[in-house]
From TrEMBL:
Pfam families: DDE_Tnp_4 (PF13359), DUF8040 (PF26138)
InterPro entries: DUF8040 (IPR058353), HARBI1-like (IPR045249), HARBI1_dom (IPR027806)
PANTHER family per the UniProt record, alphabetical: NUCLEASE, PTHR22930
Cofactors named for this entry: a divalent metal cation
Organism this protein belongs to: Acer yangbiense
Family that this chain belongs to: Belongs to the HARBI1 family.
Name of this chain's protein: Uncharacterized protein
DDE Tnp4 domain boundaries: 143-200
GO cellular component assignments: nucleus
MF term (GO), any: metal ion binding
Ranges where the DUF8040 domain occurs: 22-111
Record's subcellular location: Nucleus
Keyword annotations: Hydrolase, Metal-binding, Nuclease, Nucleus
């Protein structure tokens, strides 16, 4: 009798956990575009498209315990809000191992999509009428660096402190006129100058390629 009651209780708690987790996901994604942008840096439509791409072309799969949207929302929430594993563990009521496992599952799926997410550059056409780009005919791409705040050991902080005093990593990004990423180089310390990061990108074996006469 006690075994039957225990099994019923476990099943009841399992169903309750699923309901609560789905409510959390709903609050973050499907309640409003504003909340979705604040928490994930992406709107609902883009989130839905990303989930579809990761499932259909990135190989991401739902499991018995986590649907695809919950896996992706945990992944994006970590990146967008720079929160730790234990924060996601508490917020989504998952174990730390589960959070880590599914974060890496989504990451690997994103990497598989690199040929789609990183676009080949196309020059701005001679007859372009786009007010933003018609002055840059034959331009292939635009590049810039951005500083992303990070947390590093105390001994590493001097290297990662940028000119504004923040602890960050300097990320080089290259995109097309349609805001499609062509090249990304993360990892440099915040104290590194943009020119140094660019030089490293160009000198790498599989680094940034700049056509002659186009720089």
């Amino acid at each position: 009798m006690h075994d039957i009651q225990f099994k019923y209780l476990r099943r009841h708690l399992y169903v309750l956990d699923i309901v609560v987790n789905r409510q959390i996901v709903h609050e973050l994604i499907y309640k409003s575009d504003g909340t979705c942008l604040d928490q994930l840096r992406i709107n609902m439509l883009a989130f839905t498209k990303l989930c579809t791409m990761l499932e259909n072309r990135g190989g991401l799969r739902a499991s018995r315990y986590l649907q695809i949207d919950e896996q992706v929302v945990m992944f994006l929430h970590i990146l967008a809000c720079h929160v730790k594993n234990r924060v996601i563990k508490f917020k989504f009521m998952r174990s730390g191992e589960t959070v880590s496992k599914y974060f890496h599952n989504v990451l690997y799926s994103v990497i598989r999509l690199h040929e789609e997410l990183l676009k080949r550059p196309e020059p701005v056409p001679e007859n372009s009428t786009d007010e933003r780009w018609k002055w840059f005919k034959n331009c292939l791409r635009a590049l810039d660096g951005t500083h992303v705040k990070v947390k590093v050991p105390i001994s590493e902080k001097p290297k990662y402190r940028n000119r504004k005093g923040d602890i960050s990593t300097n990320v080089l990004r290259v995109c097309s006129q349609y805001m499609q990423f062509i090249y990304v180089l993360p990892g440099w310390e915040g104290s590194a100058a943009d020119g140094r990061v660019l030089r490293d990108a160009i000198c790498r074996t599989n680094g940034l390629r700049v056509p002659h006469g186009m720089i």
